[in-house]
Amino acid sequence: VWWRALHGQGPADIGKALSKAFGIPIEIATRDATSCLRTPIPSATPIRDRSNPYDMQWHGERVLLTFGGRALFAWTRPTGRLDLIDTAVGPALETHLWAFVPNILALHGHPVLHASAVADGQGLLAFSGRSGAGKTTTALAFSKTGRWRLVCEDKLLLDAEDPRYAWTDGEESMRTWTATASKTLAGPNGHVDTTGLQEGCRGPRSRVLEVHALDAGRRLETVSFEYQTLAYARSLAFLIEQGFRGTADRGHMMARLRAFGALAQSATCLETSVPLGVEKLREAAERYRVKVTS
To answer: What is d(CA 163, CA 263) in angstroms, rounded to the nearest whole number?
Structure first.
């Protein structure tokens, strides 16, 4: 309901969508949508930490990309070739490939942060945290103010050569590559060259001004954000935790540390609590100003 509201739909349109999706009377669906948008979620409500079914297994120069313990793809170094292992994956192939695209970029040495982001003429704000923290919802609220442009909803691609910057068309390019690559993988050859993925993610870039570590367990009754600046060590630990991983070899891990270390030094990292309710979040986003820049 919130996602549709942040995309400009009113209770009536949301009610129609709910009625169609769940087979309930439109009057009840509209009433429930209206109630949802008006009723705040108690701040004490815990958000469960969902386990991630996607994983990576290293076998020498080959990395198996798995879902629920089942190998779906195999990525080979140094060629960057990606093979489809489970040919029975069917229509879900593109969905599974999309989940692994940031890991594939990380395997090529390109850091990707699990974050949504918005940008204006001055720079970029990133919102990061575990699933359910409100990354996409917060970024969409900022984009609705007219001042900020939505950069990404889930995957923020940093410039490997200068991680203080992020590619503003990175997520869109990832989606385009995923759609094309999934069709190739489903074809007779069953493999694709991933080296082109990293080149396709270049374009306009923006300086990362702030990274907000969203507090998933706390929502505010106010119409403003509450935040606390994180020290360098905590900032670095958070960025590494939220960065998509590649290989576990020493060279890759050192490059990963340098990349996120540069971002932790350059950007202001904040532990942030957001207002609960769509309207309060929108108003807080409208009022927000970047207060501290490095």
So the answer is: 6
